[in-house]
Every structure is written in structure tokens, then in C-alpha cells.
């Protein structure tokens, strides 16, 4: 056992040792892991009588009265065992006898029928057919009928102990079926009451019965399961062949299977269905001997010289193995292991895998052959017999359960030899230490008994309490006992555990040192010392009146052979022992000091390690069990229950108390003068500290058990009936080890003690007696702080019973003084209940004082505040303290919550203590939750700004922050916070609200510029410019979002624009360009002032062409509307609204749609786009000059442009006839809107000349009219 240094407390170190040992015990391989090869046959035969696997305890001869009945035998006699009722049964012709072999002479006879009995079986009754006292049904088969007898069995006054077989009564049920001359040679039943019978005609039948006759069914009937419908119509003499009769049957209730052994040594497997109601032939294995021979060449049964016979069949429980399901024992003593799962599934046998589902078996095949041991071990003269020297067995009856095998071998006509085998735990563990995968090694022994064996059965407790590894069997578990029925009587055998062998060894009058050393070598020093503790401390041995000699020998071996702690290189057992210890994990392979060498690592003594082993196995039944559970009884709400039975608790407690008593009376656990090896003081101190921790664990465990028993005595379900759901959840599910060692368990104990106290106070009972009981039984759980707590509770109780006045205030003050001193020890549940009591008394100040004291004492280093300042990181150990303080503050908050509708104002709140920052933060949270944020602005404490700034930031708190800054006239800070909100990616803010925050930030920045110091102006100026630029881009983003939503099928993209503010590049690359949002592209060009004439022309042409070609729109009128709309947002941006380009496109469209064109379309469209008349004139004039002369001249376009200029001139003059334009301005060439009148007149003159030259009289006249009108006005 290695020393550990990384635990927090000695108690936790001791608990680690216990759990490590329990984990080692739990890793012992299951039987299928030991039988991984195709065959095996290794045995170690115990030569000393004390080491026998099974030992004969006594022979109970048949009563003389039964021998007299046997003398009257005329035809047939059968016998067997009913272990469930501790009876042997014997049939003599038509008479049935049930013999109570425990009482030796008592037997029950049944002679109420006259037919010869051919078979008898005891089965489970069908539910709902018999009264509750009938737990078993006796099936009696004769050649004429098969009938049922009800069996009532009452355990005797000694509880089924030795010599007490209980009382059996048989009841006639009047349930029978005709046998029709078929002898039912074998009868078995299932756990749910089905009864199967095999007849000598080769058929299988089911005895079906019910409580009464039905409409179409009889009360009882016999159903042939193996015949077909056609067989009823074919005469017997025409049948092809007769089925081979069955020899025996066994049922597997877990896997829902029925195994049938036939006379030809083949086995049929029937699937009974997941509900156990079917009957399907799943497999029929006809070549078992051949399969075994293929797996094991040494298997020689099934030849002419040695015929193959199966003596018995046995089911392997799923607890023993989930992949091996069945074992057949041959007449030669071989064990054939079968599996019903596929090969690949067998490779993954592991306790961590889920349980295999109950389903029809995939296969039924022999997977392992276990060769038999020798029937005459004394001939070998050694511990290990060779396979060649083994004598052939002649087995006629056998038994197998949970790894143990007992076979009856014919010795001679009058005697049998009982060959017993069981796994050699020590040998298997030794091999596991040397290699990762060990094979099965068994111990075997032979006992000769009188008579010929008829049946073998295990009596006493069921197999589920036993482990394959006998070393870990709980010391209070009874020895496995077997009854062997022969024609001479019943021989009682007991399986020897290692501790039984050790006890028999040291009980010898003269104990030879060589024998003891051999035992220690086999089982190890640690296990041997653990056996010494078992003998010295276990009630099992005290009840058996262990001799003083055995007790003294165990004590002497413990101290003389137990060793001392030592460095690895000074091991008394040499270098090999050190290596073995290292492999077994007994050497500490780590050290707190990296400079410690291997030679300085310490091995603790076998005395210490044996104590760990014994203690771990003593605690194992309850260590990992839930000590407190929440269960729903007959009421709707859950209640707390003690999760471990009182019998288990008391059993473990008694063993621990005896161990505690032994340690108290034997203080020689540290090295003493008996040992000859030198002991280093450091090593001795190390072991003494570990032993002290183990002793502390024993004490705490005893007290924890006493506490659980106390809870059971005080009716925990009743006193927890009104417990809040949160408290129920906290207290339930606590394992026993947590109750002993864990902080959660300690807190749970305190809360449960308070529950007990409250239950007493509610019944107006004094708590003094309860305090005394707790002090005596659970002193480690009942401290001085608990005393103060209970006194304070008593004062509060008295204060509640007094009338309001001075006495009430005095009692409340007394309770507060007591509670303030121990506030740090109060649980939240306790604090909440106490605060409710103070509140009921009107002591609101006491609620605040006590809650803040509890918070402060729970966190003396103020770790919770540091945790809060660090942003409350996940998986931080400080979170527990932080949560505890919040729960403390909640008591105050709850009180305020109840009074929030009363006169709660700034004065009330500012009077609360403001030195606890976390409390202030909790108070601010409450204000926000209750829509009282306005009060927060008036609390000019040191924590308001910190509360609103610290992580985790939320929209609400950040919004509150800039409001707080505005309230404090800090407009600059408010502007920065508003920009943060607008640009944040963490907050769920929609785009319109972000634009609003940008606008507010700009406004507050402008206000702050006039109020801040000169050195801060530059920072605010930068902020202002960035906000204005960002606002322009944000408005473009809003335009894109609105356009996407109007499209109807881009909601995802539209929602994405709410998440943050994008740059113009992102808006173009992610939205506008891929989604072909042409309007948005122009807006982006304007915002970024990006000039790309080719791209802009392409976009404009796409936009206007799309509008023009839309059949739902009105041609050029729709184009005019679109240009006007875009121009109002884009002009005068040359990058997004190039005037000449747009005018040219409009001219082209006018020519294309000449039938829709109206003179003035181009000019009016541009004017509606908010382009000034002068700018429109200039661009139209340029286009005219380009098309009127030169290589690109186009007379048609020139004529259209001339008309447009004339129309523009007239419309400009008409729009200004209201007098808003002065007749003539200071400049003779311009009017107040910038219209170049002289240039217009000159251009018209030029147009007229060109029209004259082109002989275009109509155009000339139109231009002259426009010029004349212009000249009249100007």
C-alpha cells in the first residue's frame, strides 16, 4: 500500500485508501475472462486438510422410519432435494415423503393417491392463482395424472439457522391433468409460473392452469409443445419415428430459455420470448462431443472406449457472466461452457458495457472445455498434478453455481467421492500481477462420503451474495453450504474460504512455521493480516465460540509477522519482493519532492495494509450507496428516506465497533520490540499518521451510521414531508462516503439535524434530549456552534410566543448575538428560516445584519468579489463562495420584495449598509428586475458605476450606464457608451436602434465639446467624426435591410444586418453585389465616394432597363419616377449619380420608346431628381453639342436635346413666375438659382441656326418661341 500526499485531510487520505482497495477488488476478472482460451485444465490440489475446497461437516442419516418404508418398496423409489424449503424428498411407490434433514428425524408423508410416482418437482406458483401463503407448488407426476400441491413454508423460530428447518404444510389444490399413460420423467418451472414436463414418449408438455374454468378453457390442461397439427391426424403406426426422450431440463429465467438434455446427449434450446409466454425451438446441438474435441485435443469422451454422457446441466447467471450462459458437466468430469451470443460479442465481456438485451439466442455453441481434476490427489504427492497422472472420473451427479463445482464420483458400490473445485483467487491475482490476462486456476479437493449420491444442492442464502473472488467476500456473509443426498442420508458440506482455511490452520495445537509461511506466500502478507482482523473482530467468529488459542494466534501473527514500514531496498523479503510490490502498486511511484530517489520510497507494513483491506471490505456494502434518497410513497410529494436498510447499517456498525474496540485495546500498531528489523523514525511516523487517519475514518463511519439510524428512528419521511423541493434535491442522493468524508455530506448532516430540531419545536417539545443523543452518538457532527444555533432557535421560538414588546425585542437581540458569532456556519436553508422568523417578529434590521454577517464570514478573503471582478469565469472554484454570498443577500432581497409596494424610497435604500460591494450589486439587480431603475440613479454610492461596467455586460445595464452618465452630466462618457452600444456585436440590438444610438452619441459629443477640458477635445472630435461617418454607412445598411425585407425571401440576410454595423466593403461584398441590390450598390458608391464609371454605367443601365421592361409599370413614366427617387438620395454625388451618363441613358430610352416620349421628359426627370435647372441645362447642352456636329453627330438626338432645352427653359420660367426669382440679379448672366440666362439664350440661338440649316422649320419655330419668352422675362 503506497503512501499518498495529495489529499487535503487525513480523513480524505484514508478514504482514498479505502476506495483504491475497493477498486482493486472490483477488477477481479469474471469467469468468461478467465476462460478466454478454448480449453484449460490447471488445478492446484491442496494437500493439507485445512486447505480443502469443500469439507464434510456432518452426516445426517435417513430416519429409521424411512428405511422401514424403503423395505416395503415394490416398484420404484426416487429421491431429491428441495433446498428452498430445506427438505429432502423421497418417493416409495405411491408414497411421497418430505424429510426435514435439519431436524434429522421429522418427515412429512403424503399418501392420498394410489398411483406410482414417477417424478416430483417444486416450482413457483402462477401469480393470482393461490393465496399469498403458498410460495411454492409441488408437481407430482404419475402414469395416470399430474397434479399440484400447494406448499406453505414458514421459517422457524431460529430464522432458518442450523437445526431449524421450518414448518411445511401441503395443500390439495384440485388442479390436475391426465397423463394419458405418459411418464413425465422431468418437470421444471419458470419464475413466472410456467410448468414444463418431458415425457418418456419424447414429447415436451406444458402444464397450463388458472384459478378457475374459462369460457373456452379448462382450469387445467396439458399442452403438447413439440407436436404439429398434422400429428393429430396420423395414426401412431404410420408415424415416421419417435422423438428421443429427454433426460432432464433446466430453465434460465434471466435469458428466457429452456434447455433440454436428450438421451442421445444432444441439447435443445427453446426460446420462451421476452415476456416468457412463447415456446420456440431456437437451437439443437447434436454434436457436442465433436465440438469439445475440436476445442480440446485431450478431450477423449465420446469414443468407443469412453461413451459421451452429460451428467448434469447448469445455468450461468448474468451476474457471473453475460456471454457464457450454460455449463454441462460430463460423466468424465469435464465442464463444457456454452454461449448463446455471437463470437464478436464475447470478446467485449466487460462490466462497463451495457447489459445484453433479452432476445432469442443467436447461437448455441461450446466455447470452452474445462478438463477435470484428479479424483485421487494424494497419489500425486505434490501441489500440482500433471494432466497425464489424473485418474478418470465417473461422475453421475454434479452441481455448479457461481464458479464452484461439486461432482459425485463413483468410488465403489457403497461410497462416492465428492470432488470440489473453486477458483484459486490468490493464484489468479498473482498471475494478473505478472501478465495482463490470466487463465483460470482452480483449487480442488476430494471428500469420500457414504452411499450413492442422488442430488446435490446449495442451501441457505442465494448465490447473488457471493463473489467469484472469495477474498473479498464480506466477512459477515455465511459460508456456502451444500447438501449431498445419498441413500445413506444427507451429508452437509461447506466451501472453505481463505479465511476459513486460515482459521483451521491456526487452530492446530502445534502451528508449524513452515505451514504459516506457505500460507503467507500463497495469499500475501496483506491478505493474511486482513484475515487476522476478520478473526479478531467479526461477530461470525465470536458466535462460533472461537477458542482463546485461535484469537491469541491471530493476534500474535498480526504483530509478529505484520512487518514494519521500511524503505524498498530494506525489504525483509528481498529484491524479488520489492519488484512484486512495485507491480502490485504497493510502492509509492510519486513524491512531493522530485529529489527523492527510488530507494527512499516507503512500503507500509502488512499490519497497516491488512487493516485497509479489512476496513474497505467491511464498508463495501454501504460505501457507495445513497444514504439519503427522495422517494414518492403513497403521497404525491417526494419525501426523504434513509437509503440503506437498518439491518445493513447495524451490521456494518457492529463490525466497525469491534474493530475500534480491538484498536483501542491494542496500541501496538507502531513498530515494537518484537520485530527485529530496524525502523526509521520517519517511516514509523508515516505509518502512524496513516493508521490515525484510518482510525478517524472508523469513528466517523460509526457516527454516520448512528446518525442515519437516528433519522430512521425519528421517522425521516414524516419530518421531511413539507420540505422545499430545492432542499430535497440538495439532501438526496448523498452517498455514504460523502456523508463521512465530503463537505457536502457534512453540510447535509447539519441541515438534517436542523430538520430534526424543527420537528421537535413544531411539536412543542424540548430539544435538550435530542441534543444529548446527538452529543453521545454523533459528537463529531454536533459542535459548539450547533449548541449556539439551537439556543438561538429556542430564543426565537420563545420570542414568537411572547406578546410584542420589550421582552420580544430582548429575546430577538439575544438570538441575533448568538447567531452573528456563528453566522459563517449556517447553511442557506438555516439562514432563510431564521430570517423568516426575524421578519415575522418585525426585526427587519436583524435580517440585514445576520445575512451580511453570514456572507462576510463565509468569505473572509473576499474571494467572491474577486470572482465577480474577473467576469465570473466558468469552472472556477470561487463560484461556490460567490453563490453562497448571493444566497445570503437573497434573504434581504426577499424581505425588500415583500415590502416593495410600501413606502420604499431612496432614503430607505441608502440607509442600508454600502460597504459590501456584492450586496450592493445584488440590490441593484433587484431594482432593475422590479422596474425601479430610477432609484438607482439616486444612489451615488461607490459601486453604481462599477456595477454597470463590470462583466458580464448586458444591453440593459449598458443602457442604464449612459443614462447614469447623463444624470451625472458626464455627456462625453455617455457618448462613448452610446457608440459602444451602436457598434457592439455582443448585444441583440436591431439596426434602427443602433442608428438611434449613433445619433444620440453625436448629439452628446457635441454637447460635451463645450464642457470638457482642452486636452479632451481632440478625443471627442475624433469620436464625432467617426460617428458621423458611421451613421452615413449605417443608413445605407438600413436601406439594404429594408430592400431585402421588401423582397420577402431574404429574411435571413435581413436579420443578419441587425447583428452589427458593417463596413461599406462588407455591405457590398456580402449583400449588395451577391444579391444584386443595384440601388444599394449606388448608395455604397456614394457613401464610399468610389468612382468606377464603367461599373456605375452598368448599374444604372440595369436599374433603368429593369424598370422599363417591367410589364407592370408604365414605361418612361416609371423610369422617371425611379430616377427621381434615386437622385433625391444620390445627387450631387458624381460617383453614384453621374449626371451626363444618366441624361444620356434617358435620351436613349426616349428614342427607344418614341411612342411614349413627351418633350421635356429628360429635363423634367432630372429636375424631379433634385438636380438644379442650371445643371440640367449644362448637361443637356453638352450632349447637344456632341450630337450636333463632329464624328459622333446624330441629328435625331440633337433635335430631341434641343427640344428638351427649350422645354427646360419654359418649365424653369413657369416654376419661377411666383416672384421668388428676381427679374435680374447683380450678375447679368445668372439668376438666384444659378441658371445662366445668357448662356441659355446663346444656346437657343445656336440651336435655331442649326435647325435653319437642317431645314427643320418646326424645331426652329419651337426654339424661337422659347427664346422670345426668355427674352421677355429677362
TrEMBL record:
<protein>
    <submittedName>
        <fullName>Nucleoporin-domain-containing protein</fullName>
    </submittedName>
</protein>
<keyword id="KW-0539">Nucleus</keyword>
<dbReference type="Pfam" id="PF08801">
    <property type="entry name" value="Nucleoporin_N"/>
</dbReference>
<dbReference type="GO" id="GO:0000972">
    <property type="term" value="P:transcription-dependent tethering of RNA polymerase II gene DNA at nuclear periphery"/>
</dbReference>
<dbReference type="InterPro" id="IPR042537">
    <property type="entry name" value="Nucleoporin_Nup155_C_2"/>
</dbReference>
<dbReference type="InterPro" id="IPR014908">
    <property type="entry name" value="Nucleoporin_Nup133/Nup155_N"/>
</dbReference>
<comment type="similarity">
    <text>Belongs to the non-repetitive/WGA-negative nucleoporin family.</text>
</comment>
<keyword id="KW-0813">Transport</keyword>
<dbReference type="InterPro" id="IPR042538">
    <property type="entry name" value="Nucleoporin_Nup155_C_3"/>
</dbReference>
<dbReference type="GO" id="GO:0006405">
    <property type="term" value="P:RNA export from nucleus"/>
</dbReference>
<dbReference type="Pfam" id="PF03177">
    <property type="entry name" value="Nucleoporin_C"/>
</dbReference>
<dbReference type="GO" id="GO:0036228">
    <property type="term" value="P:protein localization to nuclear inner membrane"/>
</dbReference>
<dbReference type="GO" id="GO:0044611">
    <property type="term" value="C:nuclear pore inner ring"/>
</dbReference>
<dbReference type="InterPro" id="IPR042533">
    <property type="entry name" value="Nucleoporin_Nup155_C_1"/>
</dbReference>
<dbReference type="InterPro" id="IPR004870">
    <property type="entry name" value="Nucleoporin_Nup155"/>
</dbReference>
<feature type="domain" description="Nucleoporin Nup133/Nup155-like N-terminal">
    <location>
        <begin position="56"/>
        <end position="492"/>
    </location>
</feature>
<dbReference type="InterPro" id="IPR007187">
    <property type="entry name" value="Nucleoporin_Nup133/Nup155_C"/>
</dbReference>
<dbReference type="GO" id="GO:0006606">
    <property type="term" value="P:protein import into nucleus"/>
</dbReference>
<dbReference type="GO" id="GO:0017056">
    <property type="term" value="F:structural constituent of nuclear pore"/>
</dbReference>
<feature type="domain" description="Nucleoporin Nup133/Nup155-like C-terminal">
    <location>
        <begin position="605"/>
        <end position="1255"/>
    </location>
</feature>
